[in-house]
Amino acid sequence: MSAPLPVSDPTMPDSPFLAESPVYRMACRQLELAALELNLDPGIHARLKSPKRSMIVSVPVRMDDGRTHVFTGYRVQHSLTSGPSKGGLRYAPSVDFGEVAALAMWMSWKCALMNLPFGGAKGGITCDPLKLSRGELERMTRRFTEEVLPIIGVRQDVMAPDMGTDEQTMAWIMDTFSMKIGYACPEIVTGKPVEIGGCIGRREATGRGVTYCIMEAMEILKISPQGATAVVQGYGNVGSVTCAELVQRGFKIVGLGDHTGSIRNDSGIDLQELQAHLASGKPLKDFPGANPIPNSDLFTIPCTVLVPAALERQITAANASHLKCRILAEGANGPTTPDADEILSQSDIFVIPDILCNAGGVTVSYFEWVQDIQQLWWSETQVNEKLRELMRRAFHQVYDLSQKRRLPMRRAALMLGVERVALDKQRRGLFP
Question: Residue 378: how many CB atoms within 10 A of its CB?
Answer without folding.
Answer: 18
